[in-house]
Design brief:
Distance between the termini: 69 Å
Radius of gyration: 31 Å
Shape: elongated
Strand content: 15-25%
Largest sheet: 9 strands, mixed
Number of strands: 18
CATH topology of the largest domain: L-2-Hydroxyisocaproate Dehydrogenase, Chain A, domain 2
CATH class of the largest domain: Alpha Beta
Number of helices: 14
CATH superfamily of the largest domain: Lactate dehydrogenase/glycoside hydrolase, family 4, C-terminal
Number of domains: 3
């Protein structure tokens, strides 16, 4: 058995001719085998140098051809370049190549394109093997503790996608982070390649695919003013945004969550990190959406899964508006029955309209109280659900509420993160612009937008006062 290796630059016409001759020999001779290697022109010289150094050969051009001594072991026997191969084939087998120069050039171009396609496919396969890098800030919080199993069980990113989780917090929480890491490792999730703790801010967000921002401030307006809390949030985002630009991947997705200033954090990261794609920054409203559906389901004595298309407008962790105008009800035990997809307008099923305003939507109502008391499980589920929709699509035909950058939809001013109805498909979100809203809702949206604009103005004003000349 004779096995030859033919290697060369992918765009080399002489390699093309040597390859053609080797193919002819393999097709003609039953005991002749050839292995072909192409290298990108930019990498050829280094590759050739390494091969020759390993084998003790002297060769400087493309192609290089050698015979592997399968029956003897040891290193191969250098044959040489194209002319050496042509002479060898003619002398031993009486076969040569009559390929013309134009044909050599054409095949060389085809070889280069084929090589580039192979490299691209290899990179895609490697990206599937390389785990997705997930960074979580303020990782000592209960939300993070509840979130880790949801991310690691495969339902969010897919059952074939491995992940590495990075927990970021200040040094005072190092022991807490180490405990979380140890517990997560002990759970032995098949898709969790690694979980690491970080307390040095300079190493934050390296190679990040997804960043989940959980930083919160403990609001107590009797202790200090709202402006001071906004300043705290602004300072955090001023640190994070440049690091995201510097260390994270260009297509990084940023999710803002937590119990305070979710919209503002997303807006400021976008403001202080202008190279981060705006469509890749969202604020999570799913906690309010889920809690609203559960409250309505209890009122109507139906399954929570039967309540659809409840919309959360505005400032997710501030003044928001729960819109039931488009909400639908499935599986209601009433006089009229239908198939599983039979739905009714939810507002038509609530006869106690006073309950909606006095209990459900009021500032002191049951919904706001329930969301306010949630410490970990509900917001963690909200983040996981938003990520799952982002990567795999939201249920067809259903409305999802997410804080996204306003571009003037529904007459909301541009430049703020505003919760509005969207759908997820093919790895991106799209605002459902065709929804009709009444005059009352439009008026409410105006008030909500004003609050978010004021928060943003206060944050930017504080920064200007600290850096009046725009220094970093």
């Amino acid at each position: 058995m004779a096995k030859f290796v033919v290697a060369g630059k992918a765009n080399c016409p002489y390699y093309a001719k040597a390859e053609h001759l080797a193919d002819c020999l393999q097709a003609t001779l039953p005991n002749f085998r050839v292995h072909k290697i192409t290298q990108h022109p930019d990498k050829w010289e280094q590759w050739l140098h390494d091969v020759c150094e390993t084998n003790g050969w002297e060769h400087r051009q493309s192609p290089i051809i050698w015979r592997e001594l399968l029956d003897r072991g040891g290193k191969g026997q250098l044959l040489g370049g194209l002319n050496d191969f042509l002479e060898y084939a003619q002398q031993y087998y009486g076969i040569t190549s009559m390929m013309l120069s134009k044909e050599m050039l054409d095949i060389a171009e085809e070889n280069l394109q084929a090589h580039l396609e192979i490299v691209k496919e290899d990179e895609k396969i490697k990206s599937l093997i390389k785990p997705m890098q997930i960074w979580i800030t303020s990782a000592s919080t209960p939300i993070c503790y509840q979130l880790i199993p949801l991310l690691a069980n495969g339902e969010v990113f897919g059952m074939t996608t491995e992940i590495s989780i990075h927990l970021l917090d200040t040094g005072q929480f190092k022991e807490v982070l180490c405990s979380i890491v140890m517990e997560a490792e002990d759970m032995a999730f098949p898709l969790l390649r690694s979980i690491l703790e970080h307390t040095e801010i300079d190493e934050a967000f390296i190679e990040a695919d997804v960043i989940i921002v959980l930083d919160d401030v403990l609001l107590n307006l009797e202790v200090q003013s709202l402006e001071n809390y906004i300043r705290e949030v602004s300072e955090i985002c001023q640190v994070y945004a440049p690091l995201i630009e510097k260390n994270a991947k260009s297509e990084v997705r940023v999710i803002s969550s937590g119990k305070t200033f979710a919209n503002l954090k997303a807006t400021l990261i976008m403001t202080y990190g202008p190279s981060i794609k705006p469509e890749n920054i969202i604020a999570v409203a799913t906690s309010w959406e889920s809690a609203a559906k559960a409250t309505l389901a209890r009122k109507l004595n139906v399954s929570t899964a039967g309540v659809k298309d409840v919309i959360v407008w505005g400032n997710i962790t501030g003044s928001n508006y729960i819109d039931l105008l488009h909400a639908k009800l499935y599986g209601y035990d009433g006089a009229i029955w239908g198939p599983a997809n039979f739905q009714r307008p939810l507002l038509n099923m609530i006869y106690d309209r006073e309950w909606i305003h006095s209990e459900f939507l009021s500032a002191q109502g049951s919904l706001r109280s329930r969301v306010g008391r949630c410490t970990g499980m509900l917001p963690a589920h909200a983040v996981a659900t938003a990520l799952q929709y982002w990567y795999h699509g939201s249920p067809p035909g259903e409305i999802v509420s997410v804080g996204v950058l306003s571009e003037g939809q529904f007459c909301v001013p541009e430049g703020i993160i505003f919760s509005m109805p969207v759908s997820f498909q093919n790895g991106s979100w799209e605002v459902i612009k065709e929804l009709e809203i009444d005059g009352t809702t439009q008026e409410v949206l105006g008030r909500l937008a004003h609050e978010l604009i004021q928060e943003k103005l206060v944050a930017l004003k504080e920064i200007k006062e600290i850096h009046p000349y725009g220094e970093g």
